[in-house]
Amino acid sequence: MPGRSSRRIRFSRLYSFSCFRSPFNDEHNQIGQKSFSRIVYCNELDNPEQLQLRYRSNYVSTTKYNAFNFIPKSLFEQFRRVANLYFLLVACVSFSPLAPYTATSILAPLLVVIGATMAKEAIEDWRRRKQDIEANNRKVEVYDGDHNFQETRWKKLQVGDLVKVYKNEYFPADLLLLSSSYGDGICYVETTNLDGETNLKVKHALEVTASLHADDSFQQFKAVVKCEDPNEDLYAFVGTLIHDGQQHPLSVQQILLRDSKLRNVDYVCGVVVFTGHDTKGMQNATDPPSKRNKTTVFYDRKRESLAAFFHFLTGLMLYGYLIPISLYVSIEIVKVLQSIFINQDQDMYYEDTDKPARARTSNLNEELGQVHTILSDKTGTLTCNSMEFVKCTIAGIAYGRGMTEVERALAKRKGKAVPDSGNSSSNVQESSDGHTDLGKSIRGFNFKDERIMNGHWVNEPHANVIQKFFRALALCHTAIPDANQESGEISYEAESPDEASFVIAAKELGFEFVKRTQTDISLHEFDHQSGRKIDRSYKLLYVLEFSSARKRMSVMVKNAENQLLLLCKGADSVMFERLSRNGRDFEATTRDHIKQYAEAGLRTLVISYRELNEEEFRSWEEEFLKAQTSLNADRDAMVDAVADKIERNLILLGATAVEDKLQKGVPECIDKLANAGIKIWVVTGDKMETAINIGYACSLLRDDMKQIVVTLDSPEINDLEKQGDKEAIAKASSASISKQIIEGNSQLCLSRGSSTSFGLIIDGKSLSFAFNKNLKDSFLGLAINCSSVICCRSTPKQKALVTRLVKKGTGKTTLAIGDGANDVGMLQEADIGVGISGVEGMQAVMSSDFSISRFRFLERLLLVHGHWCYRRISMTICYFFYKNIAFGFTLYWFEARASFSGQPAYNDWYMSFYNVLFTSLPAIALGVFDQDVSAQLCLKYPVLYNEGVQNILFSWPRILGWMLNGVISSVIIFFFTTNAVVNQAFRRDGHVVDYEVLGVMMYTCVVWTVNCQMAISINYFTWIQHFFIWGSIAFWYAFLVVYGAVSPIISTTAYQVLVEACALSPFYLLVTLLVVVSSLLPYLSYRIFQIQF
């Protein structure tokens, strides 16, 4: 501002290394060119140039249908099924004189099936539409013509609008951050819905706009934003803000993405840059897919060809019963009932959230039993979205007595006794004197050691080191305290869960962080001399932020005694080399403890400090400020180099160990799924280090497993990125990825024949190049030959692309599981999408095919319900083939006997009701209730699941075997029956069998045979199956009596045929018995042979 003698360096700029305006880089030179042509006029909605741009509205739709395309598009989906096309053709032909039966008997079932399926599609899409309506009608404050912020709906926002978003609200569009309630324009953003990460991201406004707060301050604000066109890259943004004739470079640090949440600040003001489907989140979305499971004669001698065609049409209808539409009806009924059993399974009910499992579609039940690859998110899916402080080493002494999930699994493998997991957790609460006592659990703190808890640390040999250790934890961070106005309880919002757990641990051990300003940090410390807690204030000088390159962070503070202190925490790989000669007293033991913690699946950080003298600090500060104000392209490298100089000669205090808490039962579930032959991939937006740690914790990675790491984090690539030559970067990156993939495949080739297993870890940048046409096949070959695969720093779109690559590359069933909006594309792309109803909202659940509350329930969903559903559906379909071939071929043999005249063997309504009343209910009972083994055995022997992965029960040999059995049954039924009645009196008066009686005799044999075949095929009998099997046979006789009593005009050949003819003849009963027994003998012989050998 005018009149200022010097520019003030604010806290947010200090720890983000951005005290001053960022220099323009080469990317900014592309503004106005192709892919960088977007222009936004801020707060100028009436500007004619803005109106001519015609950007998309902020209305978002994720539905598959709308009011105009539902009927044509849904009909298209229905008739993508070849069987439905066949039934439609048959229905059309049935209106002609060629039909051997009435058109109603084929058209009505077709209309019912298609109508019911369309109704189900409409209901599922309406659920998505309700979710869209809710999102589009959320409220946000927008700056209007009266120079005030007024509420409006999300869908009414336009590009260039000024909006105000309050704490814990979602951003309605992609916004350019102008200012926040913090004076220096910083805010914290939670991006869980976009990239799955729970740690908060720091965003900061440009200094030129950071002072805009009051409503009237925006009255004169006019600016133009020139930036990149809409794209899916969540981690990059290139643009320029033109204000008052000055150009200011924009980066991703100034962009607030739609569906991310504002945290820790009261409000922010921003201008809309991208709306609706142009936002980065929607650019990463994929369209809702369509997921399907993998199941009268006219004769003229002068016109023989035409007569043959007419007979073909007659046969088309006559033998349409071989593939009846009732098969679809029965399968749909079976699947719906199976879904109900999944929904009511008490073993998949999570009491803590009162949420059961839900089958949101019934189309994919049998696919649950054929899963070859699982692609899983990490945060909230495998973990509980929490980090817990469990152990530490201070002054060479290890503290913390709990056991991690990895330690329990290791102890079990070694046959050691393992304490109950509930006993190993640390349940603590604060007593009236400020100490911690055993009691309720504290989130982020799972530590138990009586030696240092409750203030007992003052009695330890190195009490002064312990004091410095926990004081460092309470000061060395960027967390912000949030006090509850009613209870006075303080909670912490931090950039990462690790950082929050450190602050909580310090609080529980007597060093409570209570207040932070831009210049001061206040603690409520336990004073070991007085035995009480006292308030101490520390002046905050500098915060040197953590980064993946630095692998450490530091703070510089001045205490009440005017001591200058540098407190530093970081990875052991960079910290031990920075220790002073006199600061290594506990280095050897600390290294040993860190190794033990790593083996236990814990994340470790080394804690150290040093005292600075005034002269040294002033000299460093001058150099540091000079580096920050530099406008060179390598400014960041210069700042890092200066920071590195002060982070030397440190004194070791100890190390922390935190557990990225897995959900209960995750390692055991993954072991079971792996034993079932299912490959598991973790595809996450988290950093590589985080994902690898979780891989070890959940047994996805093991100590004896060799790691193949594919990454672009190399000095050569980093140097090229600093130069900004995109073509050179792309060429070098592609060559690097190709080389790494070739080396990985070479390692696999060399290890063939050995027991060595490999784990593949690849980051998001590398994935983008691995998807290239010339690399994706070799990448997929490498990945599928590794025991485990972890994809890190993956964008939502990359998650979907990985899923598509695996699905199409392997040709096997893929299942994706996740809990956040960033997982939606992956869930929709997979053959089966499973959403976890966790803490990240319901977006994943709303887009999923199945929903569960915990990852461990996936074990039961696949190994039990998947196994059962696959067997049941396969058996039901094979049985349908059998019974319809057994029935249909009797028609064929009869027509052959009748010189292919088109004369049916049975009454019209016999044929119409065969698949509806007399044989369908037992098949439905088979599909719903049959079990080859119990649920306990399914879980005990996961290898049973392999029959679904290998598709044994629905393979061509199995299908052809059932079809052959049907042909054999039809041959025995027809020829035994017809030969039995030839030249044989049927009644006492000497009458032989006529056409009507022969049809009833064959039909009776068919009904008895196929139902008895069901009885000997079932593995698990219930009273319902007995009722349906024997009830179907009894209903056939009841139908003959009732239908035969109707006028002969309607009943035709069935008139009184049972009462007056068949029932009075012992011959009818004897033939039925002999033919049915003979028809069942071949299958019985096969089963006996199968059991014996």
From TrEMBL:
Residues 40-102 form the P-type ATPase N-terminal domain. Mg(2+) binds at residues 377, 379, 819, 823. It catalyses: ATP + H2O + phospholipidSide 1 = ADP + phosphate + phospholipidSide 2. Gene3D superfamilies: Calcium-transporting ATPase, cytoplasmic domain N (3.40.1110.10), Calcium-transporting ATPase, cytoplasmic transduction domain A (2.70.150.10), HAD superfamily/HAD-like (3.40.50.1000). Residues 420-431 have a biased composition (Low complexity). It is a multi-pass membrane protein. One of its GO terms (cellular component) is plasma membrane. The chain crosses the membrane at residues 82-100, 306-329, 909-929, 959-977, 997-1020, 1027-1046, 1066-1086. Its cofactor is Mg(2+). GO terms for biological process: phospholipid translocation; protein localization involved in auxin polar transport. One of its GO terms (molecular function) is ATP hydrolysis activity. Its EC number is 7.6.2.1. Pfam families: Cation_ATPase (PF13246), PhoLip_ATPase_C (PF16212), PhoLip_ATPase_N (PF16209). Residues 845-1091 form the P-type ATPase C-terminal domain. Residues 414-439 are annotated as: Disordered. Involved in transport of phospholipids. Belongs to the cation transport ATPase (P-type) (TC 3.A.3) family. Type IV subfamily. This is Phospholipid-transporting ATPase. It comes from Fraxinus pennsylvanica.
